[in-house]
Structure formats: C-alpha cells, structure tokens
Amino acid sequence: MTALVAAAAPAFPVAxxxxxxxxxxxxxxxxxxxxxxxxxxxxxxxxxxCVPFPSGLEAEIAYGSLAxxxxxxxxxxxxxxxxxxxxxxxxWRAKDPRLLRISIMTFLDQLSLVMQTMRRFGPPVSR
Amino acid sequence: xxxxxxxxxxxxxxxxxVVRDGTVLANPRRTYVTPPGTGFLPGDTAxxxxxxxxDLLQEALTEAGLTSQDIDCIAYTKGPGxxxxxxxxxxxxxTVAQLWNKPLLGVNHCIxxxxxxxxxxxxxxxxxxxxxxxxxxxxxxxERRYRIxxxxxxxxxxxxxxxxxxxxxxxxxxxxxxxIEQMAKRGKKLVELPYTVKGMDVSFSGILSFIEDVxxxxxxxxECTPEDLCFSLQETVFAMLVEITERAxxxxxxxxxxxxxxxxxxxxxQEMMETMCQERGARxxxxxxxxxxxNGAMIAQxxxxxxxxxxxxxxxxSGITQRYRTDEVEVTWRD
Lengths: 127, 335
What we know:
Largest sheet of chain B: 6 strands, mixed
CATH topology of the largest domain in chain A: TATA-Binding Protein
Low-confidence stretches of chain A: 1-18
Largest interface: A-B, 25 and 30 residues
Oligomer: heterodimer
Helix content of chain B: 40-55%
CATH class of the largest domain in chain A: Alpha Beta
CATH architecture of the largest domain in chain B: 2-Layer Sandwich
CATH architecture of the largest domain in chain A: 2-Layer Sandwich
Strand content of chain A: 15-25%
Mean pLDDT of chain A: 79
Helix content of chain A: 25-40%
Number of strands of chain B: 13
Largest sheet of chain A: 3 strands, antiparallel
CATH topology of the largest domain in chain B: Nucleotidyltransferase, domain 5
Shape of chain A: elongated
Order of helices and strands of chain A: HEHEEH
CATH superfamily of the largest domain in chain B: ATPase, nucleotide binding domain
Number of domains of chain A: 2
Mean pLDDT of chain B: 97
Strand content of chain B: 15-25%
Structural class of chain B: alpha/beta
C-alpha cells in the first residue's frame, strides 16, 4: 500500500508548498504597493578568468592585443585585464547578467582569434 | 621603400592588402553576404571576419611574395565603422605587430579611401565625393586637413539603397547596390520622389521612408515596376550628390572631382558626375570595384603615407572607435 502511494506522489516538489527564501522586505517611499517583487538586481556579478600562456612574452602580447578596446556596453560592464608572469587574468563586474554573459562570450571569441593568430604567425621574434 | 600591410573590416567586407611605394602587391578580400530582405548585423559580421581573416593574411603575403620580415609597418582601420567587426580585425593587427615586432598604425577608413583614390587616379587636389553604405561626405583638402564641405545629415546614400533593396527582397550578392543598378537600367518610368538637398548637405531618411511606402502601394496596383523604382531612386539621390559636389567645387574653384567609396562603382553616378564636370570644364576621376569597395590595400596606402610622415600608434592608443571624423586627422604628409 505504502509503495503505491509513493509512486502516485509527484516526482518534483510542488511550488505551492515549498518555502522560498526572500531578502528582508522593506517598503518603498510609496508604501508596500511598489515593492512586492524582491529586488535581485542590486547584486553585482563577478566573473574571473585566468589564461595561461607558454611564456611571459606571449601573455604580454595577448594583453597588448585585447586590452585597448573601449569599455564593453558603454560602461555597464567593467572589464579589467592584467598580466602576471605567463598568465593573463581577466576580471568582470556587472549588474546585468545578460550583458555580462555577452561580454564574456565576445571576449572569449576575440581571445581565441588572438591565440590562433599567435599559433599561425608566431612564435614572437626575438627582441 | 617601406612595405605596409593593411587590414580593413569596418563593415561587411574584410580585406588584407600590401602596398610598397605606390604599388599594390596584394589585395585579397571577402564579403559577408546575407539573404535577400536582410542586412548584416555586427555580431554575425564579426564572426564572419574572424573566420576568414587569418587565411586572407596568408593569401596576401603569398600573393605579394613576402614574408613577415619584409613588412615594415602594420596598418589597420581604427574607425569609423561597426564596433564588433572593427575589434575583430584590430586584435589580429595588434597581435602580428607584436609577434613580428613592427610599428602599428591606426588609420581613418575615409582617409584610406581618399589616399587610394589619389594613388590610383593620379588626381592632384580633387574635390572628393565619398559615398558608401556607411558614409556620404564631400571632402576637400586644405591646410593639413581633409575638410568636410558637405555630408548627409542622417543616413548614407548607400544605406538608403541597401535598405530599399531589402524592401524589394533584391539579392545582396554581390552587393544590393550593384543589383539595384542593373535593375535601374531596365526602368522606364520616373516616379517623383522627394529631393532633399539642404545647402551643402543632403538627407536620405525621408526619401527612404517615402519610397518604402510608395513601393508597397504602387507595386500592388501595378502602377510601376520594381525596375522603375530602382531607376527613380538612383536618379533622385545621384542628382542630389552631383549638386552638393558641384557646390563644393564652385566654392573651392576646383577643376578635379574624385569619387570614392562603394557607391562610386555605380556607372550611372559616374555618368551624371561626368556631365556636371564637363559643363564646368573639370575632370572626373573614379576607380574600379577593386578599390572603390572597402579593401585592405587602401588602409595600407594611407598607412604608407602616415608611416613615412612619422605617425605611429602606440598599443595603448590603438582602441577602435565607431565615430571618427575625417577632419580629426592631421594630414602631415601633404603640404
């Protein structure tokens, strides 16, 4: 009998009965009407990427190629590149997760192109 | 004798060219063509450019019979143009400049057109009509600047033609403008369209709205054919361009006119400009589609002039810019 009841129960929890955690509810200046929906947009999203290169020179070259272009999305996304040894580090900060995702994907495409260029037309000449 | 490599990809054409002392050693190019009824979007265009640019670079070097060490300078389009495509090309230029330890030069796309036009035609100091999908300007050289005498106050003439082609679902292969030109030759009826010259400037967005509207109506009632509309649009917009060019020539007392940019390939435009020039006792210069349409060698040529005059673009200043006025550049290579 118990086995049949278990099989008939839904395989996933029903939203109605499930507790949902919410940030503390603070009424806006106009009272409660405007603030029924929890404010999730005020979080800053951060994404970090570390790209290893065969040498410090190649990491510097990649940095030189990728750093100069203007802020993505007119400042809505902050992007910072640094080089340490033979690793290039990239760090993003953004409020809008969609713009952040687009910026990361675009950067990865450009990075891929830089690496293909280095593979095909490198190695760097001696200085 | 410097040898300059040039990269161009500000719109849907991507080209890599090699120039040495006024000779074009290589100039391969590819065009991103979208289906009829559609235009090219920045992200897709950038993806196209990234996929072919390294093959084009190799092709250019092979065609020129050169190795990387024979190159003295790497020139690329700094702007104006579409952001994502410009970046995709700039990162490759910066990378090879660093790999091969060569100086980098960011070139203004409009100046690339002008310098290639001057080189190929031998025009000494012409009034330039620069007409393409992205730009419409009348330019004349004066005291170290390419001064803009007149321009579009809204969209470029090529943009007007391209967007009209979408309405009629005209093929974008090889380019919408080329196909409009062929259809226009078969047009018989002149449909009256707004004529919008504003002093030294022109406006096309009103004409576009008007013809988009008229097209639906007149084609449905068989009042005219698509060929008639192509013919009417060309006659109207080209007459406007001839007018503002003539006005600038009169101001400057110029005896030479030079047409550059993709729309400059259009033989009807060249014919109308030739008529105006003959009436004034002036000479018309134009190039063929190898150099009218965006290409890498024009960037290399402008780069060659800039390099010899001592210009250099440090990496930190090498960011692309979607807005870049023709008169922002100090033309130190001319008197």
